[in-house]
Amino acid sequence: MAELQLKSIEKTYGSGFKAVHGIDLTVNEGEFMVLVGPSGCAKSTTLRMIAGLETITGGEIRIGDRVVNDIVPGKRGIAMVFQNYALYPHMKVRNNLSFGLRLKRRPKTEIEGATQDVSRVLEIEQLLERLPKQLSGGQAQRVAVGRALIKQPEVFLFDEPLSNLDAKLRASMRVRITDLHKRLKDEGRPATVVYVTHDQVEAMTMGDRICVMREGHIMQVADPTTLYERPANAFVAGFIGMPEMNLVDAILTSDGVPHLTVADQTIKVPEGLGERLRLAEGPVKFGIRPQHLQISPPEPKTRFREP
């Protein structure tokens, strides 16, 4: 496995539209990095540039110690799992899994051993003699993952691989993929993964770190807890979390002790946060998550009986 580095990556199409605006991102060796964001944020474009399926118009992509800008996809040391699985319909599962190794003319004993190993890890041994049309969606997805895994690439790329599955099966496959990543790490063969999704639940439950994108820019890169508890900006605060964070306009005053004025109420800023905001005064965005709100009934009026 290898470290993946994107340095000042840009993508401009012939029409002049700039899809990716000089992004920088490092995916550590053995890390599970998730790219997440709304539709049109260029997360899939970024993944396709890493794979070599899209040309870059600026910057540098480095896998391990190699700059791969001008290297064809097949020689980049990557394996990609697509949204539509992309299995060969005329080949049985066994041949779908081993196709990449057979192209490289690996010995038959090595191919058979690798096929058995991968099918065991993904629990698809009983499917080896079936055709893709005889598989369920979840089974086909596991075969697609196995076909990537058997190549032992330097970087795994996943392009919204679970979006065609129903909710229950999608949740099950999330667990399978993350368990597979952990198992490979425990076995001493860690997998460097870049995983694209528009589903923030997938992102928050699967990623070691998450890269939040918007309109071809990176908004924040952090672990799930940091993204949730300390978003870097209003976009990340509103995008991460179900239900989303409430964001309202407020006025920050800092005459000794910072206070927020929201509508006609004044709120004392907690001590730890107050230190960070002491020099910032004026209009701000105040964000609070719904589960942190508590509605208290008004205190009952005391009634006195006449003696």
From TrEMBL:
SMART domains: AAA
GO molecular function, one term: ATP binding
Domain ABC transporter: 4-240
Pfam families (UniProt xref): ABC_tran, OB_MalK
PROSITE patterns: ABC_TRANSPORTER_1 (PS00211), ABC_TRANSPORTER_2 (PS50893)
Gene3D superfamilies to which the protein is assigned, alphabetical: 2.40.50.100, P-loop containing nucleotide triphosphate hydrolases (3.40.50.300)
The UniProt record lists the keyword rRNA processing: no
PANTHER family given in the database record: MALTODEXTRIN IMPORT ATP-BINDING PROTEIN MSMX, MALTOSE_MALTODEXTRIN IMPORT ATP-BINDING PROTEIN MALK
Protein name as catalogued: ATP-binding cassette domain-containing protein
Naturally occurring in which organism (per UniProt): Roseibium salinum
